[in-house]
Design brief:
By secondary structure, the chain is of the alpha+beta class. The protein has a single domain, classed as Thiol Ester Dehydrase, Chain A. Helix content is 29%, strand content 31%. It has a 6-stranded antiparallel beta sheet. Strand 3 and strand 4 form a beta hairpin. Helix 1 packs across helix 3 and helix 1 crosses helix 4. Keywords: Hydrolase. This is PaaI family thioesterase. InterPro entries: HotDog_dom_sf (IPR029069), PAAI_dom (IPR003736), Thioestr_dom (IPR006683). It holds the Pfam family 4HBT. One of its GO terms (molecular function) is 1,4-dihydroxy-2-naphthoyl-CoA thioesterase activity.
Length: 167
C-alpha cells in the first residue's frame, strides 16, 4: 500500500493512534489506512486465530463487529477534532451491523465509515465492510455515540492521541 498523503488525509495519524490505544485492536492487528474529517478507513488482516468456523476458514462475526465499531468511533473522533478542534470521549450508544455475506478466507477486511451528523449530544455514523471492492460489501453498520464532553478526556489519553511525549 502506498503511503498516505497527509494533505488528502490529514487525520490519519490521529485515527491511527486512537486505534492503537485500544487493546483489542492491537490484538487484532487493526490498522488505520486513511482518515479525514469525512471518513476513516481501517484494515483487519486475516489471521487464522480469528476464524469462527474452522471448516470454512470464515472470520468470526464478532471480529467484523469490532472492526466496524472501532472504525465508527475513530470517525467520530476525527469529525469532532476537525470541526471543534478538541478531543472527546464518545461511548457507543447503539450499533447495528447487517451482514450480507461471509468474508472470504485468507483476505483482509476493510471498514470505511463516515460520521455524517454531529449534534451537541449525539454523533451518527454509517459505513461498510468489504474485501476486494467497496462496491461489494460484506456488511454495513449504523451507529450512534453519546457525546460526553472534552473535560472527561484524561491527559494521558489526550497526549497519546495527539502523539505528544509523556512527561
Amino acid at each position: 500500500m502506498q503511503p498516505v498523503n497527509p494533505e488528502f488525509f490529514p487525520l490519519t495519524d490521529l485515527a491511527g493512534r486512537f486505534v492503537n490505544e485500544l487493546a483489542q485492536c492491537r490484538k487484532l492487528k487493526i490498522d488505520c489506512l486513511e482518515a479525514s474529517e469525512h471518513h476513516v478507513l481501517l484494515c483487519l488482516p486475516y489471521e487464522p486465530e480469528l476464524v469462527g468456523y474452522p471448516e470454512s476458514k470464515v472470520l468470526h462475526g464478532g471480529v467484523i463487529t469490532t472492526l466496524m465499531d472501532t472504525a465508527s468511533g475513530a470517525a467520530v473522533i476525527c469529525a469532532i477534532f476537525a470541526k471543534e478542534e478538541q478531543l472527546e470521549l464518545c461511548p457507543t450508544l447503539d450499533l447495528r451491523v447487517d451482514y450480507m455475506k461471509a468474508a472470504k478466507p485468507d483476505q483482509p477486511v476493510y471498514a470505511m465509515v463516515e460520521c455524517f451528523k454531529l449534534t451537541s449530544s449525539v454523533a451518527f455514523t454509517r459505513g461498510i465492510a468489504y474485501q476486494e471492492s467497496i462496491d461489494d460489501p460484506i456488511a454495513q453498520v449504523v451507529c450512534s455515540f453519546m457525546r460526553i464532553g472534552p473535560e472527561l478526556v484524561t491527559e494521558a489519553f489526550r497526549a497519546a492521541l495527539l502523539g505528544e511525549e509523556k512527561a
